[in-house]
Amino acid sequence: MKLCVQTGDVVDRFGFEKGYSLIAEAGFDGVDWNLDHAWHSSDIREKTYRGKCIFEKSLDEVTENYAAELELIKKSGLFVSQAHAPFPAYSQDDPDFLDYAIEVYKRNIEYCGSIGCKHLVIHGISRALDNYVHSAEEIRELNLKLYSSLIPVLVKTDVTVCLENLFTTYRGVRYQGVCSYPDEAAEYIDVLNEKAGKEAFGLCLDTGHLNLLHQDFEVYAPKLGKRIKCLHIHDNGGSSDQHMAPCAGTVDWNRFCRSLKQAGYDGDLSFETFNQTNIAYAFDERAVLPWLKLIKETGAIMRDKIM
Hints:
It is built from 13 helices and 10 strands. It has helices at 10-14, 16-25, 41-45, 59-75, 97-115, 136-148, 151-154, 182-196, 207-212, 217-224, 253-263, 274-283, 288-306; strands spanning 3-6, 30-33, 79-84, 119-121, 160-164, 167-170, 173-176, 201-206, 228-232, 269-271.
């Protein structure tokens, strides 16, 4: 059970060499690679996304693009535990975007397979509560199309695509999104794995999202059990997606640890705490390393409680 942290925004702020050096110095074993930076939501809104994403290109070109960064990851003594694909996968204003996103995700999967990254998080599609263009059943069919389309690539790799428990926002209030209900998440994963004929899909359990929806870890995680393949660990105050360090918000971390133990989780502990380090950086860049060390040490305590 390795301790990992996402690359953004530490690497974004400090650059490859210093950023990965800081993550390693803090004591982390690996990273959650933010490959989601490969496109921007503004391009999707403005329908100017084509030709801008590296994952539109050949696998050789993708490999060359990330070669220097990957070399620094390894040089720092780190490994890529999991990665995050670009999101969102769908735009109501541009229905053709889903087909484009699927092709991007296929190349993303191929790249992860080529570097030994076992888990790739791909956000599903949630229903827009402010504009009922699609019924709940239509949203389900869109999600099944999204993930099922990836099976031909997944069966050729050791990569597991991980759905994530998401939320959606309407008039400033957070509501359930795709996979926020444990039974729905389990059904998606089971249906997709049956289609794939192998364990090609799992869940990335996001602690902050569960807390926003005031859900009980000891209900959610045990229902998913071994379907949980990776984690996004972060805290918040229960009203916004703050991505803070554990113990800086209202998440019940003892219940979280007990729930993973009940679920039989044996994967890595990966922290998605970019806003905590952003706040530290805004104060003084020298404060980032102490916060990273604290997050890592908190992870070590979690590991003791879970194992």
